[in-house]
Amino acid sequence: MFKNYLKIAFRNFFRNKLNSFINLVGLSLGLAACILITMYVSHEKSYDKFHEDSNKIYTTVGEFKVGDEKIRMKRMSHVVAGQLKENDSNIDAVLRYYKHNQAMRVATILPKSQPISEDNIAAVDANFFTFFSFNLLYGNAESVLNQPFSIVLTKAVSEKYFGSQNPIGKQLSLNQDKAYTFTITGIMEDFPSNSSITSDFLISMKSLSAMEETKELMSTDYFQGGSFTTYLKLKDINKANEVEATAMRLDRLANEEADTTFVLEKFIETHDLNADNGRFNYLSVFPIVALLILILALTNYMSLTTARAGTRAKEVGVRKISGAGRKSIALQFYIESAIFVCISFVVGLLISILFKDLFLELLNINVDNSFYFNDLFIMALTGVFLFAVVTSGIYPALVLSSLNPIKNFKNKLTKHTGSVSVRKVFTIFQFAIAVLLIICGIVMSAQLDFMRNKDTGLIRSNIIMIPVETSMMTNATAFRNEVDKLPEVEQTTLAMNQIYGGYSAYFVSKENSQESYTVSTFNVDEHFIKTLGVKWYLKPKERTAFSENSKVIINKKTIEGLGLKPDPRGEQMDFGNRSFEVAGVVNDFNYTSLENPIKPLAFFVSSETNANENILGVYNSYLYVKLADKVEIPSLLDKLEGTYKEFDETVSFSYQFMDDAFDTLYKAEERLSFVFYVFIVLALIIAGLGLLGLVTFMAEKRMKEIGIRKVLGASISEIVVLLSKDFIRLVLLAIAVATPLGWYLSDSWLSYFAFKINVPWWSFVIAGAIATLLSVLTLSIQGLRAATSNPINSLRSE
Q: Which of 11, 356, 359, 732 is the most exposed place for a label (fewest CB within 10 A)?
C-alpha cells in the first residue's frame, strides 16, 4: 500500500510540474532559513553545556547600589573562593580565573625569535582541567598547572609558535614590563565555539604571586570584589541560596558596614548575560521571524495543494466507490505531503549548507563543524522537520478526503471546494508577513542612518586613534613628537581610553555629602577637548586648570546627576580617596552607544608635558591624531607605521579611525537589519510564488470563460483586471492588517534606544507599495499570458 502511495505521489508531482516547482522552491527556501536560524539559536543556547555537571557550576557575583544605579561585581578578590569552600559544605569545588588585562609580548626561547603581542592570556587554578571538561591533549590534568611559571597552550597557538613539534618541556618568554620564562606543561584542544571561556594561554595561578605586575592582586586578605572570576561547583543545586547567605556572612565579617548582596549566577547562562547583542534581545527575534517564514512557506504549500482539489476529484471518487474510507484517503494525501516535505527538507538542508558560511559571517559568529552533531541542534532540527510534516499535511488531507464522490462524477464541485475562504486567509497571511517584515526593515535602516549621522557633540571624522603600549616606554614621547612633525597632522592629543571603546569609572560624592554616584572618567591631556571639538558650557576661569592635578572638568549631566550648583566651578568633588575642584563644564556629548543615555562624565586633564611623562608609555594609552585637510590617507598611514616601528619593534602597529569606532557600536543592529532584508526577500519570493501559483490555477480554471469573453469582444486589460481584482483586494487587506502590527513592533524595538527616531509614516507607504507592486506584476504577467492565448484552443473541447 505504501509503495502505491509513493507511486501516486511522484506521478502527481511530475504531472503538475509548475505547481510542484513553486511548492518545492517556496518550501525549500522557508526550511533553509529556518534551519540556519535553528543552527544559530541552538548554538547560542548550547554555551557551556558540554561540561560535566554544567548545571551545578555557578559564578559568584556581588551587587550593590550607588545612588539609583545598581553595580554588579563579576570578579572577586583571590581569597573569596577559598573562604567559601572552607565555610560551606555545599560547595564541591572552586576555581579562580584571572584574565590578564594587558597584552604581553610572547616569544620562544630561541635566537632571533621575534615577540608577538598576545592579549588572550589567563591565569587559572591547578584544578582547571578537572573542574571543567576541556580536552587536554598532552599533560596530566591534575598536575599540569601545579607549579609556578607553568603554561598550557591551545593546539592552534602551539602550531603557531612550534609548528607540528611537540612543545612539552619547551619554554616561552612572556613580557609586559618584565620578561618571565614559562615552561610548557600541556597542550589542550582549541576551545569549542560554544564556550564562554576562551584563552590562548593558560598560566598557573601560582605564577601571579611571583610576577611584579600581579603579585599585589594576591596580597589582599579581604573578602571583597577584585580581579578574579570565581566559579563554584555545588553538590546540590537547591543549596545555592545557602551559599549566597554564606558569602554575605563572610562579607559582613570582613566589613561590618558592607551592603553587598551576593548572588550565584548559573554558568550556563553566562553567555546570554554577557552577549554583545545590544540591549535588545535579538536571540528572541530570530526564532520568531524564522517561524513566520516557515509558516508562510507551509501556508503557501497548503493553499496551492487544496486549490487543485478539483483536479483529483475523480480519483478520490473512484477510491471511495471502490470501498476506501476517508481515513485511508486522508492517510494517502498526508503521506504525499510528508514525502514532499522530506524532499523540500533535503533541498533546504543543501541550501543552508551552501549559505552557512555567509550567514555566520553576517552574524559575526563562529560555529565548529562538530556542533552539527550536538544533541541540542539535532533535537531542534528534528523539531523543525516534524513541525513541517505535521502542519503541511493536516489541511490538504482533510479537504481532499472530504470530497463527495457523487458530485465528483457529475462535475458539480461547488465553488467552496478546497475552502476558497481559507485560501484567501492564507494569501492575506502571506502578504501580511511580507509587509510586516518590510516595515520593520525600513524602520531599522532609518534608525541606523539616524545614529550614524547624528551630531554626537564631538568631531569623529579625520581622527585616528593609535594604541601606544607600555612596550614603547620612554620612546613614547619621541614617537608623539615625530608624529606632530608630519605635515599631514594638524594636532595630536592623548587619552588613557579609546573613545567608544570604554572608559574608567569612579564612585563620586559631592562636597559635604556621603551619598555616592557613578561617574565615567577619562584621563586626557590639555589638547583633548579642543581637538575633538567638544563645546564648553562653562570655561575654566584660569589656564592652570590644565596643569594642576587637583582640578577636574565635568559635563552638564554631572551637574544634574549629582545635584551641583548651576555654576559648579570651585566646588569640590571626591573621586575615591581624592578631592578635586571643578574647574569647568563641557556640553554633553555621546561617548558611548546611542542606545544609552548620556551619563555623568569627568575629565582629569593634564598638561601635554605631564601627560607625556605620567601616561604615555607608562600605561597603555591612545594617541589621537587629527588630520589636516586634503590628506592622502594611505600615504599618511605608511608614514605613521614607519615612525611607530622606529620606536617599538615588539608590538605591531595598529590604528582605528574614530568614525569607524563609532560605527562599530552598531554592528549588532547592522547585522540584524541585513538579516531582516534577507528575510524580506525570502518572504516576498515565497508570497510571490504562492500568488503566481494561485492565479495560474485560476486562469486555467477559467480558461473557457476567458475564451468566451474574448470572442464577445473583451479587451486584454479587462481580462487582466478580471483575474487580478480579487487578489489585489486581498493584498490591500493584508497591508491593512500588517500596518498597526508593524508600528507596534517597530516602536517596541525603538524603545531600547535612548536616542531614536519616531516610526516614519512613509515606511508604511513604501511597504504597501512594494507588496502591491509585487502582486500587480505577478498577476499581470500571468493575466497577460491568459488574456493573449488563442480562444479557439480553450473552446475546442466544447
A: 11
Give the side-chain half-sphere CA count within 13 A for 661: 22
265 pairs with which residues across the strands?
A: 59
CA–CA distance, 776 with 544 (Å, rounded to integer): 72
DSSP-derived secondary structure for 45-60: HTTTTTSTTGGGEEEE
Separation of CA 498 from chain center: 22
Give the DSSP letter of residue 267. Answer: G
- Residue 720's CB is within 10 A of a number of other CB atoms, namely 21
Q: Considering only CA atoms, which of 739, 704, 702 is closest in space to residue 722?
A: 702
Report which DSSP code applies to 190: P
Report the C-alpha gap between 563 and 576 in whole angstroms: 18
What lies within 8 Å, CB to CB, of 535 at 6+ separation is 457, 586, 587
**Cβ-contact 400, 329 below 8 angstroms:** yes
Residue (of 737, 73, 745, 46) closest to 379 by Cα position: 46
768: left (phi over 0), alpha (psi -120 to 50) or beta: alpha
pLDDT digits (tens, 9 = 90+) for 452-498: 888 899 998 899 999 988 778 788 899 999 999 999 999 999 999 88
Which three-class secondary structure state does DSSP give residue 178?
A: coil
Q: Which residues pair with 154 in a beta bridge?
A: 188
Contact 63, 263 (CB under 8 A): yes
What the block records as the C-alpha cell of 329 is 484517503
Helices 326-363 + 375-401 axis angle, to 10: 140
pLDDT in tens, 74-91: 999 999 999 999 999 999
Q: Residue 487: is it exposed, middle or buried by C-beta count within 10 angstroms (0-12/13-18/19+)? A: exposed
